[in-house]
TrEMBL record:
Family recorded in the similarity comment: Belongs to the NAD(P)-dependent epimerase/dehydratase family.
Residue ranges of domain NAD-dependent epimerase/dehydratase in the record: 5-230
Protein known as: NAD-dependent epimerase/dehydratase family protein
PANTHER family tied to this protein: L-THREONINE 3-DEHYDROGENASE (PTHR42687), L-THREONINE 3-DEHYDROGENASE, MITOCHONDRIAL (PTHR42687:SF1)
Top-level taxon: Bacteria
SUPFAM superfamilies in the record: NAD(P)-binding Rossmann-fold domains (SSF51735)
Length: 314
């Protein structure tokens, strides 16, 4: 049977690269990108695209029937920093879009779902270092509350209705193809752009704020490995801890200075510092390693080299 895949929120930071990678693997016409806005040229020109609002169940159902979709990647969401400004809009988007795809799977209109969670599910009472898979959560942000609730609903739909939903708690993601969409870890992308353009960056987090991070290629590979794994290996149906590296703003600045010695970093923390203060410094992802063989490939040094090389060329 032919497999057709739908990406919802395909024009964002992760959706763009996910769509392009899936198109390489499965064929351009097999992967339908959708969003409420148009995306980059490479995304728009490489395969089918639909304007689609993730909160509109009927529209979603129509696109899924038209293209005979079996697998959905739901990437539409309002991210942590923006969600603090628009709490009800964030809750409505993040929860209703998830219910829509979970219900379509429950009704057997699709077979498999990927939905990303985040390290934002953790909170100030969570053990900060090597945060375990199962631990105290108690998130204090609008975004974190929506992700934690989403995890519980994914687990519920799997156990109650047999829905094949799979999820990863992404750390902050670093990429050069698309800019980030309003999160607390956005600084770790902006810094490379400013380093090349101005040899200087003012960071909105304090110099010693350590957060879990990952290069986009690792995040996309983890997503595909999880989705392609035998279902019997997927023991966690809420969301898997996933890790690659942790660093502070001062450490990323030092790694950039190895290539751009006159790069200058200054600090002017804003409201995002309070969000970062409630998140873990590092993550224990041993369950993902054990269940489906997860292993990261990019550390900070390699990430900095990839970011500066590719941004310099583009
Ligand atoms: N980027 C990160 O560092 C990170 C970390 C952890 C988790 N995540 C999660 O990964 C997912 C994707 O994140 P991202 O960074 O690509 O986000 P992003 O903000 O870059 O992209 C989200 C996309 O969703 C689209 N969208 C918004 N409302 C929509 C709607 N009603 N219907 C359809 N599309 C809509 C936007 O236009 C945008 O293109 C989100 O669930 C996010 O919470 C991201």
């Amino acid at each position: 049977m032919q497999k057709y895949i739908l990406i919802i929120g395909a024009c964002g930071q992760i959706g763009t690269e996910l769509t392009l990678t899936l198109r390489e693997q499965y064929g351009n016409d097999k992967v339908i990108a959708s969003d409420i806005r148009e995306g980059s040229e490479s995304l728009m020109q490489s395969g089918p695209f639909e304007i689609l609002d993730a909160t509109d169940y009927d529209a979603l159902e129509e696109v899924i029937a038209y293209y005979e979709i079996s697998e959905v990647y739901l990437m539409a969401a309002m991210l942590s920093a923006t969600a603090e400004k628009f709490p009800m809009r964030a809750w409505n988007l993040n929860m209703n879009s998830l219910f829509n795809v979970l219900n379509l799977a429950k009704e057997k209109k699709i077979d498999k779902i990927f939905w990303p969670s985040s390290i934002a599910v953790f909170g100030p009472n969570t053990p900060e270092n090597q945060t375990p898979q199962s631990t105290i959560m108690e998130p204090t942000t609008v975004y974190g509350i929506s992700k934690q609730s989403g995890e519980r609903w994914c687990s519920y739909y799997h156990h109650k209705f047999g829905v094949d939903v799979r999820s990863l708690r992404y750390p902050g993601l670093i990429s050069w193809k698309t800019m980030p969409g309003g999160g607390t870890t956005d600084y770790a992308v902006e810094i490379y752009h400013k380093a090349l353009a101005e040899s200087a960056y003012t960071c909105f987090l304090k110099e010693d704020t350590s957060l879990p991070m990952m290069f986009m290629d690792d995040a996309i590979r983890a997503t595909l490995e999880l989705m392609q794994a035998d279902g019997r290996k997927i023991k966690i149906r809420s969301s898997y801890n996933l890790a690659a590296m942790s660093f502070t703003p001062s450490e990323i600045a030092k790694s950039i200075q190895e290539y751009i010695p006159n790069f200058e970093m200054s600090y002017n923390p804003d409201f995002r510092q309070a969000i970062a203060d409630t998140w873990p410094s590092s993550i224990d992802d041993s369950q993902a390693r054990k269940d489906w063989g997860w292993e990261p490939a990019f550390d900070l040094k390699k990430t900095t080299r990839e970011m500066l090389d590719n941004l310099d060329k583009s």
